[in-house]
Design goal:
The chain is mostly helical and 172 residues long. It has helices at residues 2-12, 15-20, 30-46, 49-60, 70-87, 93-109, 111-118, 128-131, 142-147, 154-161, 165-169; strands at residues 67-68, 126-127. Bound molecules: calcium ion (CA) (2 copies). InterPro entries: EF-hand-dom_pair, EF_Hand_1_Ca_BS, EF_hand_dom.
């Protein structure tokens, strides 16, 4: 287990280079994510957590059926990868590390596996309820809810991620 983690850590040190490979600000997704953040960053700092989650889901749910499919996850991964490659240098160091590591973990697991971690009824779609199974959303803004151990079951999330969860603890 320890050796496995050491190998993961070693591989993860390469993640910014992987994510930054061959992408420019003109690639699909960069402008879309810039617009999404501009419209929602302040909103999510103050609005009830569920409303913020709804906006994020609406961004990913291109066919509007209320759930996230594998195709929609692939599109989001491509968008985030291109955006990250174009914008990572202007991000705060911690955001840069968290997003870069998230991309790397998603690619290491494979997007099908990432979907399965959340798709508890196994229908191939991730609903709002499945995505937020470890979080009790309430009237507080999302950052506050996620920082509250009574509302966010961090251990449950770590169980989903398995050994990969330890990598996120290395970010400070
Ligand atoms: Ca959908
Ligand atoms: Ca499902």
């Amino acid at each position: 287990m320890k050796r496995h983690l050491a190998r993961l850590l070693l591989a993860a040190t390469a993640f910014p280079a992987i994510a930054a490979a061959a992408a420019t600000a003109n690639d699909p997704g960069t402008a879309e994510i810039d617009r999404f953040l501009a419209a929602n960053r302040e909103f999510c700092r103050t609005a009830p957590s569920g409303d913020c989650v709804d906006r994020g889901l609406a961004f990913a749910d291109t066919d509007g059926d209320g759930a996230i499919s594998l195709a929609e996850t692939r599109r989001l991964r491509a968008f985030v990868g291109n955006w990250y490659a174009a914008r990572s240098e202007s991000l705060h160091r911690k955001d840069q590390a968290t997003i870069g590591l998230s991309i790397w973990v998603a690619d290491s697991l494979g997007l099908e596996r990432v979907m399965q971690l959340f798709d508890s009824d196994g229908d191939g779609l991730v609903t709002r309820a499945e995505l937020t199974a470890d979080v009790k959303l309430d009237e507080r803004p999302l950052p506050e809810v996620l920082a509250d151990s009574e509302a966010f079951d961090r251990k449950a999330m770590e169980r989903r991620l398995g050994p990969y969860a330890a990598l996120f603890k290395t970010i400070r």
